[in-house]
Amino acid sequence: MLDVTVIEDAEAAAASLDPMRARLLAELGEPMSAAALAARVGLPRQKVNYHLRTLERHGLVELVGERRKGNMTERLMRATAASYVISPLALATLQPDPDRHRDTLSARWLLALAARLVRDVGALITGAARADKRLATYALDGEVVFASAADRAAFVEELTAGVGALVRKYHDGSAAGGRAHRVVIAVHPSLKSGPAAPPAGRPDAQGQIDG
After folding, report:
1. Can you spell out the DSSP letters for 54-66?
2. Which pLDDT score is estimated for 206?
3. Nearest CA to 86 among 24, 14, 26, 20?
4. What does the angle CA 104 – CA 105 – CA 109 come to, to the nearest 5 degrees?
5. CA distance 197 to 211
6. Which of 9, 32, 70, 143 has a 20 to 30 Å separation from 116 between CA atoms?
7. pLDDT tens-digit series, residues 138-183
8. Helices (H) and strands (E) in the chain — how many of each?
9. Helix (H, G, I), strand (E, B) or coil at 35
10. Which residues does 101 contact at the CB level (< 8 Å), separation at least 6?
C-alpha cells in the first residue's frame, strides 16, 4: 500500500468522493472481505460488493488474497493507498493555469501554483512507477513567526534575492543532457488548527534522489 497517491481520472475522482465509497476506502487500510466490511459499515454485503467493484475498476482498491469460508471463496480487498489526492487533471479544461495571471502577492495565484504542483508531481510519480524508477524530488516545510508586516516583507525580499542568486549560479541552459527542474517557494499564514508543524524557525526538509 502506498502512503499517498494522486487520482488523475475524473471518474475515479467521482468514485472516491462518494461518501460511502470514501468510508470503505478508509476502512480498507487492512485487507478485509465484503462481509466484514458490510458488518463494519452497516450495509448489505451485495451493496458493498457493488461499491468494491467500482473502486477496483478505478484502481482505488486491489485484491490481496482469497480464503475459503464454508462453500464460498472470500476475496480480501485493500485500498491501494492510505490517502488520496485528486489532481487538477481530473477537471480537464477547468484546471487552473498559473501562467495566465502571474501575481506573486495573489493567494489565488499561489493556489494555482499548488494545483500545478499536485498535477505535475502526480504525473511524474505515475511515470516513475511505470518505469520502475525512483523520482528525484526535494521538499522544505517550516514555520516562521514575523513580528510585523514589515519583517515579513523584508523576509520575502531576501528570500527572492537568495533563491534568485542560487538559480543564476546553478542554471545552465546549454548543458548537454541537463534536465529542467521547477522551483516553487510559498509563504502564507499558518492555519490555527491542523497537523502538527515543525517548531517555529526550524524547517523540516526531506529529499529523495534518483537511485
Report:
1. HHHHTTSEEEEEE
2. 46
3. 14
4. 65
5. 29
6. 143
7. 999 999 999 999 999 999 999 999 999 999 999 998 998 888 999 9
8. 6, 6
9. helix
10. 109
pLDDT at 71: 79
- pLDDT attached to residue 188: 93
Residues facing residue 69 across a β-bridge: 72
**Residue whose C-alpha cell reads 542560487 in the numeric block:** 166
Q: What is the DSSP letter of 188?
A: -
pTM, rounded to two decimals: 0.75
Q: What is the CA radius of gyration of the chain?
A: 22
The rounded distance, in Å, linking the Cα atoms of 122 and 59 is: 15
Q: Which residues of the chain have pLDDT under 70?
A: 194-211
Residue 12: predicted pLDDT: 94
Q: Are the C-beta atoms of 76 and 33 separated by less than 8 Å? A: yes
The H or E element that residue 150 is part of is helix 149-170
Residue keyed to cell 495571471: 101
For residue 108, what is its C-alpha cell?
Answer: 489565488
Pull the grid cell for residue 138: 526535494
